[in-house]
Amino acid sequence: MIPIFKTIKFKFLVLFNVFVIGLCVVLGVLSTNAMIRTTVQVSQKDALFLAEKAVALLDVDLFSRLSATLDSSDPGYLAACESLHQLKTQYNCQYLYSMFRTPDNRFLYIIDGSSTPDDEENFSPLGSEEDVSTYGPEFQAVFDSGAVYESGLEYQEGWGWLITVATPIKDRSGSIVGIVACDYDGSALKAQIDSFTRIQILITVLSVLVGLVFIYFITRLIFSPLKAIAEPLTEIAQGAGNLTVQIPVHKENEVTYLASCFNRFVSTLHGIIGGIRDAVGHLRIAGQSLRENSLVARDSLGKFIETVDEIRGLAQQQDAMTDGTFNEISDLEKRIDSLDTLVSDQANELNDSFSAIEEMTANIETVNSTINRISDHYRNLVEESEQGKTIQEEVSTKIAAIMQHSEGLSEANTLIQAIADQTNLLAMNAAIEAAHAGDAGKGFAVVADEIRKLAATSLDQSSSIKTMLDGIHGLIEQIVASSRSSTESFTGINSKIGEINNMVTELSYAMAEQKTGSRQVLTTVTGMKTSCKNVTSDSAAIKGDARQVMKEVEALRRLTNEIFSKADSTKDQIAEMRESVERFMNATGENENHIEKVSDIVGRFII
């Protein structure tokens, strides 16, 4: 139940009464003020006319003389008072008097026509003082500016309600010498105003009462149908939401039209609530299905994150393996570079060895040629030594020839010794290179060892030849010294020459073998050079393949990094999707709660 002071009816009554009372008060005040203003203006005009007429009636010289002497025995004083009194009586004025302001700002009565001199209560004698402080500054300003003073209806202590008008008295020079004041009685006017005010109050009260009666019927006409409408509405609002309730419609007016519209609204609401009830049922089923699908999506996203983590772990393993492969290929490339350097150095050394062996072979051929010539000389020497047995006479000549040949043999022996030394040096170098070559140089090491042995043998033979040549020189010297022992010497010479011939033959065979070994060494070195070239070519190919593999490994590393990046991005996106699904699930739960609330609310309606 709505409290009475909050109802529209109560507010309407209060506002209407306030409006009526306010309107009556305003109209009463305005009319009263207009009446007072009009009455006061009429009285002011009459008082001003009377005051101006009194100024014209007064003798200014008499007034000035009385103001100066204040002598009431002046023969013109009483006559002047009588004249003003007659004028006052003629115009029904309550008080008519004249005043003078002394230099010390005191206000004195001069000629008073308000009453006769024998009326002590109402007559003011000449020179009596008046307190005008309550009159206001406008009254005193008449003495200063000469402006006419007109008061309204005012209450003056001791005099009652008055309307006062004062006008200046001027001498012939225009100077203000005093004033004439006229007071009209305002008691009757005040009584009229009070009576008029009471009438206005009575009219206001009657207007309020009439308005209340009028409002009673108006509100009854308006609010009674509204009350009839409110009862079914209250039943719908406070009950179980019975939408079968209808507002009865008996008459045709604005309120009943509103009731008809409400009945149509309730019928429409009946259909809407029925549709909402069905939709809420379907919405509940859809919400449950949506929540189940959200749970499945959340679980799937969790598994998806685990799969992405596994992919990332595999990518990390692949990245580690790629780094290991990259490092191993880098080491392989460095080793290939080292192998290229070693093979290049070995090839250069083989080229040097090849040149040295070629030179040695050429020297061996030269030595062989020399040995062949020596062998021929020795054969000739044998023949000549045999002939020398029979031809002693040619000994001297042959000795000279032998001397020349022995010198050639010494040179040849020196050459053979140099060749043997060089061959020994080459054999040592070949053995060192064979040791450097490892297993591939074992065969070459055997050949180098044989060459070294041959060189050693050649040195030994060369030493022997040198010794023999020294002996030949000694024999030749002995032959020169003594030809007697030529026969014995020829025998020794033949023997020695035979031995030398055998040695030369052996040396020839050894040089031939050395030549063959040198050619085999050349063949081996040539094969080694070919192998070095093949190794260099293969290492270059391997190096190119290694670089290609490194490029592919680098590309694989980039792909692995992209996999890392894509996996992280995918994981972040899945995490965001999972958060969205979580929020969606929460929203779905809230939606189910709201659906239940809506279902409860809709279920309350009776349709």
From TrEMBL:
In this protein, which residues make up the domain named Methyl-accepting transducer?
321-543
* Superkingdom as given in the UniProt entry: Bacteria
Give the signal peptide as a residue range, or say none if absent.
Answer: none
Q: Which InterPro entries match?
A: HAMP_dom, MCP_chemotaxis, MCPsignal_dom
Keywords tagged on the record: Chemotaxis, Membrane, Transducer, Transmembrane, Transmembrane helix
Q: A Gene Ontology CC term for this entry?
A: membrane
Looking up Pfam families in the UniProt record yields:
HAMP (PF00672), MCPsignal (PF00015)
One biological process term in Gene Ontology:
signal transduction
Segments crossing the lipid bilayer: 12-36, 199-218
The UniProt entry, under SUPFAM superfamilies, shows: Methyl-accepting chemotaxis protein (MCP) signaling domain
Question: Where is the HAMP domain positioned along the sequence?
Answer: 220-274
Q: Which family does it belong to?
A: Belongs to the methyl-accepting chemotaxis (MCP) protein family.
State what protein this is by name: Methyl-accepting chemotaxis protein
